[in-house]
């Protein structure tokens, strides 16, 4: 709506249709993802919300973990985790969400979904509710841990069917 103040295509609705027709979507967390900082991301109020394997909260959903929190993989046999098992390095925060009925929660952080997957129409969707870069994901997670590439590789391969 900010492009020259003229009506245009609803890109989020187009994305929903693309996933429903067989595409794959991965939503990654951050300050302006999911519901986000002061609720400003507000994806809960868009067509994208129905595609996700999780329900978004109506309020600021950020959970800061300055001392770090360790994820627990609960779906270690699922191909979307890329074969990663065992302990994950600490993360410094995430966006709190709730799993939808029928979604598979593959990893949790603070008792909330960190990685969740589901089908949508002929397609698939997944979430990684923490950051994928050095903000909530410190160097020990995104640069030094060999599981980082394996998890994101597994997610991309699973999403692409």
UniProtKB/TrEMBL annotation:
User: Which SUPFAM superfamilies does the record associate with it?
Assistant: Class I glutamine amidotransferase-like (SSF52317)
What region holds the Putative glutamine amidotransferase domain?
9-160
What start and end residues bound the annotated signal peptide? none
Pfam families to which the protein is assigned, alphabetical: GATase1_like
List the InterPro entries hit by this protein, alphabetically: Class_I_gatase-like, GATase1-like
Please give the name of this protein: Putative glutamine amidotransferase domain-containing protein
